[in-house]
Each structure stands twice: as C-alpha cells, then as structure tokens.
Amino acid sequence: MKLHKASAAAAAALVLALTATACGGDSSDDSKDSGDGGGKIIIGIKFDQPGLGLKKTDGSFAGFDVDVATYVAKELGYDAKSIEWKESPSAQRENLISNGDVKFVVASYSITDERKQKVDFAGPYFLAHQDLLVRADDSSITKVADLNSKKLCSVTGSTSAQNVKEKLAPKADLLQNGGYSECLTSLENKAVDALTTDDSILAGYASQKEHQGKFKLAGLKLSDENYGIGLKKGDTELQTKINAALKKMVSDGSWEKAVTANFGPAGYKNEPAPQIAEGS
Ligand code: GLU
Asked: Where does the pLDDT of residue 29 fall: very low under 50, low under 70, confident under 90, or very high at 90 and above?
C-alpha cells in the first residue's frame, strides 16, 4: 500500500515535470514559438465572423479584430507577413492562451472576472452588446422574455450562452454550438427561432450578401461586452505593450478607420472607442 502511494506520488511528480517542460516554463524558451523569437507571431482570431474575424475563400483574413491584431503585432515588431492566424473558437480561447499555442487572442473576447482567473487582458478596445437575430418574417420575438418559450442558439463557452442560462431566459431551449455560423444555419433552417450573441457579430451575418433580407436584429442591448486582447496570465510586460499599441491605434485614427471599413458595410452603429485601461 505504502509502495503504491510512493509510486503514485513519483508518477505525479514525473507528469508535473513533463508538463512543465512541454509548456516551456517561461516564455523565453517557448518551443512553440508563438512570438518570442524566430520572427513569427501566432495570433488567435475567429475564422467565421464577418466584420470581425473571417477567413475568406481566397485564404486571406479580414475584419476589425484582424485589423486590431495586425496593428498591435506591428507595434510589437512583427509585420503582417510574420503573423500566423490560429482559429480560436469561444470555448478554446483560455486554453490556447495558457498552453502557449498563441501569443494573444483578438476574437470578440469579452473581459470577464471568470476569464481573468485564467488569462489576463489588454484593453478594452471595443464595446458591443448582446442582441438577438431572428428571421426577417418573425414578429413573435420582440423582447427577451419571449425567448423562454423559444428555441435559441448560441456558442459554448461564450458570455452570450451563459447570460441566457443564468439571467436572460433560463427557460429557453438553448442549443449550443461550437461557432455562431453553425447557429446561423440552424436559424435559416428553422431548427431554432433566434441566435443570440454580440450585436457586432450579428450585424456582420445579417449583412452578408447571401443572407440579405433573411434576418433582422431585435435591437436589444442585453449586456455590455468589453472586448479585450487575451494574453498569458502574469505577462504584464506584454499587457503594457499591447495597451500602449491600442492607445496609439485610437489616437492616430487607425481605430476609427478600421471600424468604418469593417462595420460600415453592415450599417452597424458602434460605440465610441472605450478608455483603454492599464491592467484590465
Ligand atoms: N463577446 C462574447 C464572448 O466573449 C460573445 C462572442 C464570442 O463568443 O466570441 O463570449
């Protein structure tokens, strides 16, 4: 029995040691090279959110988060060609950051106390609000209480899904997918009655050519979503540098330009640039 315990402890110690090695311990010898030498930087974004982070059919990337990330990377010493984009679905963002798979995440990523247990944030660099997207001919959903008798779709690991379950419509029949584009298909197919997430994301879907006239936003500001840039917990040096880059992006007019270019086509009325805080 004793022997058993001892060997279990030894095995646990070995696992710990191996984990520490695999993670690279500190960022200076990060074997995954997410941006500490080697000339490239890996940045997490969404791949399926038009207006924010979208991988286009030609393989290029576009959106406000892409522009913010590109600007920040440049300030950190990485030109656009040195960026490797990594798809970062909502539920995987904290893990991608803490595993060192990405240097930072710019992916409609709301700053929350719960997430701050695992990662740190620079920013905020954008303020959005949770809203609903419904089919254009549906007039049965005008307020949040209507959702309690409806089928709703959102994404695993998002604040949108959490808000529905905890406060907005706990009785709604909630389908949770890996990404919002999957919910959009469900909405179109009438498998669900509404899709809920940030208005910034919903406006992008509604304005896509293939969706025009099919959907409408309810126009409800159901929450405040302050987007931050997620980074490894404790990396205050990177956090300070990113905050400085974000401040510069706002003050030199690049932020406004990126907002107009990416949200303008969707007719999305954005909030003004938020105050970028130290140590978000
Ligand atoms: N901003 C919200 C969040 O961080 C919803 C959008 C998303 O899932 O990326 O969860």
From this structure: very low
